[in-house]
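Follow-up to my earlier ticket, as requested here are the two runs.
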Amino acid sequence: MSTPNPQPPTPKGYGFDGRWWFLVFGFWGLGDGSSGAQAPPVVLENEHVRVTRNAALCGSPKTPGCADRVLVALADLNVRTTPNITFLRRGDAIAFDFTKSYSPPPGEFLEVTIKPDRPPAKLPPVAIAPDKNSIVHDGRDYFVFEEKLEPGDTRERHSHAERVVIVINRTRLQQWPDGAPMLFRDQIPDDVRFNPPVVHVVKTVGNLPLRNIVIEFKR
């Protein structure tokens, strides 16, 4: 009768039948992706803007690539601009030019950095100002406004240039763009988009008001 091959003894201090090695090298592998500096949470970037979430990479305008910036609150937060503190509610926005600094606010927010070397913006074929909105900031190259439209209400034909759109409320829109078919668009909270120029009519068909923060270029 043959004798079974004996199993090699488990090395002292390395129990769990060799599983120690799996744990060590498994966690080591996980550490490669989770340790050290993390990439900033960029949610949108193109030749015009960079938008980061909960990361103020341009608190100082002296940082390379930083000049004009807009902070948009996704929750209530305090923004420190020495020596002042500005309280923002969700959906509030504050603009900073190249002379102003701020500290990264704890909480949920978006930082929209307008690139100083961006190309000229694409403009609509006609300029028709939209009504029923509120201007937050009116600068030389861009303006910031709160886009508002109550349920069942219609914004008559108007135009937009290239722009960043940050969605605050969940709702649904019906749109009639010039030269294109009618369409419906769902508004998803905290969605960030860069929209092309358009001339259109808009109606809110959802249960909640339309509410967006828009950074639109003038040139």
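Run two:
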Amino acid sequence: MGIERGKDWGTPGTAPGGLAWFDSDRMASRFLESSPSPIGLRGGDLARTLGAGTSDGRVRFEVDLLRVRWRGVGGSGETVALAHALVRRSRGWRGPIVAVMNSQYRGDWDVAPRGHPNDGRAEVFIVDEAMSVRQRWQAWRRLPLGTHIPHPSIGASSRGSGEWSFDRLCDLWIDGEHVAPVEWLSFEVVPDGAVVWVPT
């Protein structure tokens, strides 16, 4: 299961015929909720993490998934995330922020520069609610380069599961798509949860 030090990761080859290809993480993770992999991924944060290119070559990767559960005013739910889960207030400059990363990137942000999507763990970043707006602005400016950590107001850990409760409703985003306002969130890593093909 997962990666081993000193060993290559990813296998060049010929992708199966009839493979379902996706251009976004959320489209792919929705598919994986009800259908087994393999899948093809041309775009999105996980594809970028895997080094996807634009040539006709193909590389096969085994990747972990995130099983995410939540509870909010409208009830509870469960879904699968391929790249990341993010919880924050609708106005992100205040309140707690929790980022659970299976990919290195979220859009233009290099959130988890040391993360790996097949090591059986997610990279978890927690922004202290007391972190000032000025400090958040400074950290936000450093996100594209991945230099926002270490920071005394940003907790960073690598783990296989976790859960949080929030005093006020926060917005949950899965693979870049808003899902629901939540008061409680948990996640669990599903090791080797999917097989993903990407162009080289």
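The only thing I checked on run two: The longest strand covers residues 177-199. Let me know what else you need.
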